[in-house]
Amino acid sequence: MRKAFGCIAGICLLFSVAGAYAAEEVAVGSITPLSGKLAVYGEGFQQSMLLALEEVNAAGGINGKPMKILYEDNNSTAKDSVSAIQKLITVHKLPVLFGPAASSNFLAVCPIAQENKTVLIGAESAAAEITKCGDYVFRVFPSDELQGKGAAELTVSLGYKEVVLTYINNDWGVGLGKVFKENFLKAGGKIIDEFSHDEGKTDYRSEVLRIKKHSLKAAVNLTYIKEGATMLKQAYETGLKVQWLMGSASKSPKLVELAGESAEGIIGTYPTFSQDTPQYKHFKETWEKKYPGKKIPIFGEYNYDMVHLTAKALKVAKSLSSDDIRNALIEVGKGYMGVTGDKTFDANGDVGAVYGKWTVKGGAIQDYKP
Amino acid sequence: MLDYYAQLVVNGIVAGAVYALFAVGLTLIYGVFRFINFAHGELIAWGAYLTLMFSGFLPFGLAVVPALFLTILLGIGQERYIYRSLRQRSRITLLIASIGLSYLLRNALRLIWGSDLVSFGFETRRGMSFAGLIVTRTQLLMVAAALLFLAFLYMLLNFTMLGKSLRAAADNTELAEIMGIDMKKVGLSVWILSALFAGVGGILIGIDTNLEPVMGLINLLKAFAAVLLGGAGNVWGALLGGLCIGIAENLGVAFFSPGYKDAVSFALIILLLLFRPTGLFGLIGGIR
Predict the structure, then answer these.
(1) DSSP reduced 3-state for A303
(2) In a domain, B288, yes or no
(3) A102-143: per-residue pLDDT in tens?
(4) Which positions in chain A touch B124 (Cβ < 8 Å)?
(5) CA nearest A55: which of A327, A281, A274, A312?
(6) Structural domain that includes position B155
(7) HSE on the CB side for A269, CA within 13 Å?
(8) A366 — contact with chain B (CB < 8 Å)?
(9) Do B210 and A203 touch (CB under 8 A)?
(10) Is B25 helix (H, G, I), strand (E, B) or coil?
(11) How many C-beta atoms surround the C-beta of residue B190 within 10 A?
């Protein structure tokens, strides 16, 4: 009996503590890959978010109350992303969440956020499919819808009218391939052959041969790093001479390291933003002050913008209910110039983007200049 | 156009030669011990990763030697410490133990070298051209190594006492034992051969492309298909099976999306199990 009383008292105490913390802080949740295969990126996302958080709190927090980010690890998988979002929604009852990296993970949680009327914001998920997630889902990272267009424009601007198109066989690749095709055909281009290739294989010679068969000048290859590297290498060995046109997901020094000589001269697109803005300079300065000697991580700028924008929305929201925050987010996004440019949300919660061109020259990735 | 098909066949032969190496090892174990070793794929991956480790401080040609030696030890260790003590149990126990072991070994690779891709770091070179067909030096090496090792196996099985005892044991283990054949010796040599072939194949694949912890698993599936095609336990059947799978999946690309290339092996497995469970080259059991 005494034990039972003790338990109840303990639970009451726990609730009162939880209640107290909710009153003093404004908490938002974040599903972040802190373990698993994306953990290498997850650390950088977290550091960028913390950098912005520190600035928000130094400037008075959310109307006097400090802002707090509650991190929940997703082990880099879709399954654990779902457990994480359920915990953040049902146990912590948070109205705003930052979604997980990798489109397949993000797509796994977005219906849950939408169903529970919880605002979900993504900083690094690109799949075009996310656009259809619903009106509680936003992202500060541009959709592939735009990258598909960008890649089509790049192909046309380089003067290639006939190409072979290949893309990686997953949510991201198939979606991006589709958008590219639509835009390229619209611009008068012709796709001579089109096929998907599987993720994670070591032998892409048959794919390469299929490209070679058509003896065209250019091949559009929307793929990841290791698949891209293997394919480039095997194409080089097979004596295939085409202009490779690639997307943003293969833009990595690792690609050059794995593919070596065969990566020379490829051209690709990637979402970019100006590094001459005062916003970027400020970000770079504070980053270097807080994390001296550490390089700015991939998508760090987007994570930083996401936190600042959310804080701004929390400040002006009528209440801390998810509906009010959602409306406030749309409002503050209008014309908001972050580190990564204009964050005005469209009707689907997507932002616009500027696309840059990259190439590999002398074993290094650099901006492409014709 | 003819060039295109010819090139596909050439690529198929190269891939098939390596599949054959894996399949022969797998089928040898099956022939003598009557169980499929799911951890066979890990011998492939460990062979490659150990070579990577030794090539850090030895010239590549030399690094292969201790790497293969350790791979063989790993194979013998599987038998000595796990399978042998389970041999009296049901076959399902052995099967499950081998699946568990494959997970353990694969994740050990992840733990030591990480899940990221690594490569031996050879420079990429243009392939050589013969009458319009392009072959790389690595591909030539793959075929040559496969031929060498399979010829060695042929000699061993047909012209040595050990080979004869091996075949006898595969034919009927109990009878062989009654006749005074040393089963320990037979078992040991089967594991040595199986691990050696897997390690060599793994290194060849590593030279050709990259190394990653799941490389063994991917190739194990191809080896399964080859073993079934040749009839489980049939060494030369497995060899032909490997070649057939390699050529079939490469030629298949001419007719449907390369994304479905791996489906060829699986479709073959299913068709064979449905219509000819003893394999194309008939005659169940026995190393022939």
Answers:
(1) helix
(2) no
(3) 888 999 999 999 999 999 999 988 888 899 999 999 999 998
(4) 233, 236-237, 259-262
(5) A312
(6) 2-120+128-275
(7) 25
(8) no
(9) no
(10) helix
(11) 23
Q: What is the pLDDT of residue A61?
A: 92
Q: Which two tokens stand for residue A189?
A: 């281009």
- Inspect the interface and report whether the beta carbons of B115 and A207 lie closer than 8 Å: no
| Residue ranges for chain A with pLDDT beneath 50 | 1, 12-22
Number of domains in chain B: 1
pTM for the full model? Answer: 0.73
Could you tell me if residue B282 is inside a domain? no
Complex ipTM tops 0.90: no
- Token duo for residue B175: 């009878």
Task: Please compute Rg for chain A using Cα positions.
Answer: 23
Burial zone of A309 (CB within 10 Å; 0-12 exposed, 13-18 middle, 19+ buried) = buried
Amino acid residing at B251: L
| Domain-located, residue B17 | yes
The strand order across the sheet containing A190-197 reads A190-197, A162-168, A218-222, A243-246, A267-272, A354-361, A364-367
Least confident range from A263-272, B27-36, B112-121, B158-167: namely B112-121
The CA–CA distances, whole Å, from B24 to B68, B181, B262 equal 17, 22, 20
Question: CATH number for the domain including B239?
Answer: 1.10.3470
| 111-170 of B, contacting A, C-beta below 8 A | 115, 117, 119, 123-127, 129, 134, 136
Is residue B16 within 8 A of residue B192, CB to CB? The reply is: no
pLDDT digits (tens, 9 = 90+) for B186-212: 999 999 999 999 999 999 999 888 888
Amino acid at position A141, single letter: F
Q: How far apart are the first and last CA of chain B?
A: 40
* Residues of B whose CB is below 8 A from A236: 124, 126
Dist CA A267 CA A220 (whole Å): 10
**Per the domain annotation, does B283 fall within a domain?**
no
- B238 Cβ under 8 Å from any chain A Cβ: no
